[in-house]
Amino acid sequence: MKKRLLIYAIIAFMTVFVYYKNKSAKDVSFYVGVTAGPHAEIMAKVKEIADKEGLPLTVVEFNDFILPNQALDQGELTANSYQHQTFLDEQVKNRGLKIVSVGKTIILPLGAYSKKIKSSDELAKGDLVAIPNDPTNGGRALLLMDRQHIIELKKGVTNPSLMDITSNPKKLKIIEVEAPQLPRTLDDAVMCIINTDWVLLAGIDPHSALFKEDSNSPYANVLVIREADKESPRVQKLLSIYHSDAIKEFINKTFKGAVVPAW
Predict the structure, then answer these.
(1) 0.90 exceeded by the pTM?
(2) DSSP secondary structure code for residue 174 in this structure
(3) Angle at CA 233, nearest 5°, toward 227 and 239?
(4) Which of the residues 64, 158, 189, 242 has the least number of beta carbons within 10 Å of its own beta carbon?
């Protein structure tokens, strides 16, 4: 696992290095960080429109959840589009970042997947269940399991951890795994709770989920910028293009309900 994490870090670092090396002081391009999968596909479509409308975009793809915020905070990106508000709030609080969201983008419903069972009712005593290991998506997974009455959590906890489980009737072994590795963990675990972006990248049908969040999920993804750029006309233009009917149509046609516009 540590070796895999090192590989992801190296890939993400090299991505940042390459675009930064080619960025000149006179560069007027708008650098937008995204993660691989739906965010990258949608932003590529946004770029097509933005380029024609005089807002040249450079889309920088990451395979990491931390580096895009750090690159934005340090001024190497103009914006990023890959995270929900809860994750952003946690990053700002813990890392002292001066970045803010300016609008919603899409909802990527978190879902439970399995190669071994067809329904969560088939979970047996002691079965292995894997969830994301970052605090926000891990908590999100636990809340989803609580709503399915698989476990029970302390009342009123909005971002729970494994320590907040008060009842686990089937004594499930719940482990935390790096989000990109969860699709591979399906070979070992009985059930994995996985973000839709990693589901799509792994070639898994998102409609095969045993259960998942609905369109009312509070985990809408957001477009994020530096605090200093809140009044930037270029930021407002980018958001306007993202919220256009053309992009909404592209999302609905491309992802067929697996990814939902959040505006």
Answers:
(1) no
(2) E
(3) 80
(4) 158
